[in-house]
Amino acid sequence: MKKSRKTTLWALLFSLALALGAAPAALAAHEPADNPATAVFGATAPPVRMVIPMGRTVGIKLFSDGVLVVGLSEIPTGDGSCAPAKDCGLKEGDIITHMNRSEVDTIEEVQSLLKKQGGQPMSVRAMRGDKTMQVTIKPAKAADGSYKLGAWIRDSMAGIGTMTFYDPASGLFGALGHGISDVDTGKLMPLQSGGIMHSSVTDVKRGASGAPGELHGAFRVQTDLGSLYANTDSGVFGTLKNSSDFQLGDALPIAQRREVSLGHATILSNIQGETVAEYDVELTKIFPNSKSDTRDLMIRVTDPRLLETTGGIVQGMSGSPILQNGRLVGAVTHVLVNDPTSGYGILVCDMLERAGTA
Question: In angstroms, what CA-CA distances link 40 with 30, 35, 43, 255, 256?
Answer without folding.
Answer: 21, 10, 8, 26, 25
